Amino acid sequence: MNNLDKVLEKAPGVRVRPLVDQELLLAYSPTSRKLHWLNLGAWALFELCDGESEVSAIVAAYSTAFEGELSEQQVSGQVTAGLESLTSSGLIRAKA
């Protein structure tokens, strides 16, 4: 995600079910008509796409959540890959 000022939101119609014991979020996208199993990192990114926060704020919040566990480079890589995956899966989108 190159546009740090872009605001991301959950796509309309996405249904989710947390599987807390398994540390997974099950998400259904009506766009792709598929179920997606989100690990904790992807789950965190999905929740941070609240329709209010710019990508730069999402990166900062993700970095804070995983502080001490991930380097700055790892955070950047995971956020970029995660947001691209969530977008291509139809779970999030750029706010119009």
Secondary structure: elements and pairs:
Layout lengths: L6 E4 L4 E5 L4 E6 L4 E5 L1 H9 L1 E5 H11 L6 H17 L3 E3 L2
Antiparallel strand pairs: 1-5, 1-6, 2-3, 3-4
Helix pairs in contact: 1-3, 2-3
Write up this protein.
This protein has 96 residues and is an alpha+beta fold. Helix content is 39%, strand content 29%. The protein is built from three helices and six strands, in the order ββββαβααβ. Strands 5-1-6 form a three-stranded antiparallel β-sheet. Strand 3 (24-29) and strand 4 form a beta hairpin. Helix 1 packs across helix 3 and helix 2 (55-65) packs across helix 3. The chain is globular and about 35 Å long. The relative contact order is 0.25.
Distance between the termini: 16 Å
Number of continuous helical runs: 3
**Amount of beta strand:** 25-35%
Secondary structure: helix percent: 25-40%
Q: Spans with pLDDT under 50 lasting ≥5 residues?
A: none
Strand order of the largest sheet: 5-1-6
- Radius of gyration, rounded? 13 Å
Q: Can you write the helix and strand succession as a string?
A: EEEEHEHHE
Number of strand elements = 6
Indicate the mean pLDDT. Answer: 93
Label the structural class: alpha+beta
Sketch the major β-sheet. Answer: 3 strands, antiparallel
Shape: globular
